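Please fill in the sequence for the structure shown.

STRUCTURE ENCODING:
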């Protein structure tokens, strides 16, 4: 086992990546990171240095072992194509349509995967109503 330490370009936190000797040799000989057979998060850390926390925010996908906090995948953003999850649920409209909000581009999506456009005041009212109900 060899340890590679990468510093996050966004928050400065360092992440230690453990590589088997064989993988480490490939890594240091300049092999494509994608060919090392690592998970997406570990690969991204080796490529850009980004830590798992920042990757969760930037790519809106759960780090290995943290899937529970994201809930089920509900589709992908109709605008920027990033994955949306149960955690991105913001509440229901006046017509009782459940809405999900993309954390990257702030677009709204209904459960059919269609973009929903609402004025900001209405979006805020939906979120506020949800907070009041405590759900
Ligand atoms: Zn970071
Ligand atoms: Zn989006």
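FILLED IN BY: designer on duty
SEQUENCE:
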């Amino acid at each position: 086992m060899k340890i590679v330490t990468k510093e996050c370009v966004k928050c400065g936190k360092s992440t230690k990546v453990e590589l088997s000797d064989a993988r480490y040799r490939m890594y240091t000989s300049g092999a494509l990171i994608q060919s090392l057979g690592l998970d997406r998060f570990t690969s991204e850390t080796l490529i850009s240095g980004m830590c798992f926390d920042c990757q969760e925010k930037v790519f809106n996908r759960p780090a290995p072992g943290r899937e529970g906090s994201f809930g089920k995948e509900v589709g992908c953003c109709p605008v920027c194509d990033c994955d949306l999850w149960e955690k991105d649920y913001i509440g229901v409209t006046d017509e009782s349509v459940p809405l999900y909000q993309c954390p990257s581009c702030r677009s709204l999506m209904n459960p059919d995967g269609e973009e929903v456009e609402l004025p900001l005041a209405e979006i805020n009212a939906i979120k506020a109503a949800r907070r009041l109900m405590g759900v």
